[in-house]
Amino acid sequence: MSPQRVRLDHFRTSCAIREANLADAAALAGLMCELGYETTENEMAKRLESIVSDARYKTFVAVNDGQVCGMIGTYAGQSYEHNDLSGRIVALVVFKAMRRRGIARRLIKTAEEDFSRRNITRIALTTHLTREDAHRFYEELGYERNGFRYAKNLRRT
Question: Is the dihedral of CA 93, 91, 133, 106 positive or negative?
Fold first, then answer.
């Protein structure tokens, strides 16, 4: 077995997944920056206060050697189209230096297990058109492309 393979296998067994808390604000702000959303620790702390107190949201973090290295944020709620709750993966990101080690797969698995415990069987997500690696990743995990997302920023009044 190659040294890199041993190192990655060790990492996979030592990485822990847990629910996020307010003390994770700095790391989560850094992760949002990795996605291209400039976010300060104070901004993330304010967001997290609302998110962690809302039962519809769940935020899980991956921790390695005591440091947050990835996160997944989910939302569960009613939809207009279906009678039961629907789930949505709102954010998924792993620090660039920690990618390709199975962290995102573990975060997805954790989110899917959480949705399943809550009897949510339908999950949706969106990803930017330019993130082709992400498209392949989700398809490998059984997610299917089923539409287009349009966005528009409105002026603040």
Answer: positive
